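Slide 14.
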Amino acid sequence: MISTDVLVVGAGPTGLTLAGMLAQHGVDVTVIDQLAEGANTSRAGVVHARTLEVLDALGVAENIVAAGLRSDRFVLRDRDTVLVEVRFGDLPTKYPQMVFIPQFRTEEILSARLTALGGTVLRPRALVSLDAATGVAVLDDGTEIHARYVVGADGMHSKVREQAGIGFTGGSYPASFSLADVRLRGARPDVEAGLYFSRDGILVTAPLPDGTMRVVATVDDAPEVPDAAYVQGLLDTRGRRDHRLVVEEVTWGSRFRVHHRVADTYRAGRVLLAGDAAHVHSPAGGQGMNTGIQDAVPLAEALVAVLGGAPETVLDGYTASRRPVAEQVVAFTDRMTRVATVPRALRQARNLLIRGLAMVPAFRRMLAWRLSGLVYR
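Slide 15: predicted structure.
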């Protein structure tokens, strides 16, 4: 049997950030993850300004910036036509940029910080059952963990959320998403995130620090593992024609379907939720991992306060503050996705409207604040 103040289920970016913050404040925290080792695929590929701000408190923001590629702009295009360019350089923050970095590198940095603080992750350990009222968890190896609080940071298919009986309200998009990290022949484009509208669906491109480029696209039926010819077809039919990108190799590829859901509550008794266990949404704008990390820091602060003698209502304040943020992120990314995939007949009108709005400084500033996450301070 193991006794601990806080059991964190899931050692992704959200769980590692939470555990690191708790350990930094002297809290006895136990982390479990069902994987034998941290994932080495890239998945999320960008860290935004607000996320870097909150990670400053854990002492890892500068490490992430140093390990990634910095960019001060996000460009929305319809093939070769620039519809709007969002700049981050004038934002009132220490980190006026987006940082392109594969998720596994972010996790390595967070894991190293947790280790330096004396914490560890028990692997591979899967949660089998959980009593939300008592905080008693049983693992797949028979280990019983008695925790004062349990945090589900275990993703969209959260076992913690299921065991606590918390609903996950929302729906899913009809299209699937194809994702690939590719090596290109010749010069790579500028260091910027590009979102392309096309009659066939959306395309997202972003550079990664190892010289590869992330490509994400909506398709009716994505292949399980896209090959170079498949990704090349996506770039040729949806991307720029004035700067054709030629795929030389796919270093990693996958497919996924996107849901837009928010947990009915972030707390049930001794159980709390954070990250994808609490909210999932379209990848438009790269908000997912960032929103999860931004959950972790105020949750850690609330747990430290309660474990130090503050009333448990402080934990309800975490739900009250972070759940509305998730609803805003879901609404924002949903609007971006739906605008990107309007019927062909409306495409010209959409482009004219966006280009007109792009002439308004307040509109560009609104996008910068939303994408950077600074609006959720």
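Speaker note: The chain has a mean pLDDT of 91.
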